[in-house]
Amino acid sequence: MPEFLENVGKYWHETKRRYNWQFITASEELNFIQTIAESIAPTSDPTSITNAIKHGYNRLIYDTIVFAIHNPDDPVARSAANRACAEIWCIARNIAIARGVDQADIEDIAQEVTLRLITNPEKVEKPHKLAAWIGYQVLDFRKRFYSGKLRSQQVALETAETAASTIDVEALVERHLMLTLFKPLLKEVLSNAQYVIICKHLIDGSPPHEVAQQLNVDPHTIHSQKYRALKIIRNHPKLRELLESIHEQQ
Asked: Which of 56, 67, 74, 197 is most buried by its number of CB atoms within 10 A?
């Protein structure tokens, strides 16, 4: 087993360098290598070992994001998820470059793929093949970007879930400053981070990076928590009633 563990470690470092993986820190490497070595039967086949490493790495990133989504107030989970999102963004960006995406669209597509994952992780049917899923999403967004469908929409993709509702929650919160009605109830139903994001970003108009600095989190967290907060707002009976009342007055 020690010899096999050493072999897995060798292929781990080779694969990590090849794909420029950044998610697993130096202090976490040994534990990851041991996990991979225990997940497969000892073998000298490079392909089997490398595939096990790729699958394990993909699964770890996916599980980290899902765990943080279900534990939004856990600072350790949130920090790990931020690193995982940064890795997703980089993978998507590299695939977009390899697929010949226009330079002006590369970062937008990487961002959209990341947002699609953190807002709908259940869409990934095979988490151990997350990189392949990301590749499919890049192609999908490239097709939609180039067809002009995205640019012709009034609502950006990052608010697609909200746009599917009969009420554009984000637009309403941005346009109407009924703080005396909303703030107390918002504070009751949202986490502290979500409350700050809705008030500072959507209502006050502060840029995401400024809110991220205030909360001492990665900008990816602002996007993911915003969508979770909007979903809570839309599904909350009282808040929805207030929003529908405002909507009817337009």
From this structure: 197
Q: Which band of pLDDT confidence, cut at 50, 70 and 90, is reported for residue 14? A: very high
- Radius of gyration of the chain measured on its C-alpha atoms: 21
Q: Which CATH class is domain 165-248?
A: mainly alpha
- Domain ranges in the chain are 1-147, 165-248
Alpha helices in 40-74 (DSSP H): 46-70
- pLDDT tens track for 204-243: 777 888 888 888 888 778 888 888 888 888 888 777 776 6
The position carrying tokens 């097709």 is 143
Decide if 52 contacts 36 (C-beta within 8 A). yes
Torsion of CA 209, 137, 86, 9, to 10 degrees: 180
C-alpha 158/C-alpha 239 separation (Å) is 22
Note the helical H segments in the chain: 2-19, 26-39, 46-70, 75-98, 103-119, 130-147, 149-152, 160-163, 169-175, 179-189, 192-196, 208-215, 219-235, 237-248
Report which residue type is found at 15.
T
Q: CA–CA separation, 41 vs 1, rounded Å? A: 10
What phi and psi, each to the nearest 5 degrees, are found at residue 48?
Answer: -65, -45
Note if the pTM is more than 0.70: no
CB 226: neighbour CB atoms within 10 A? 23
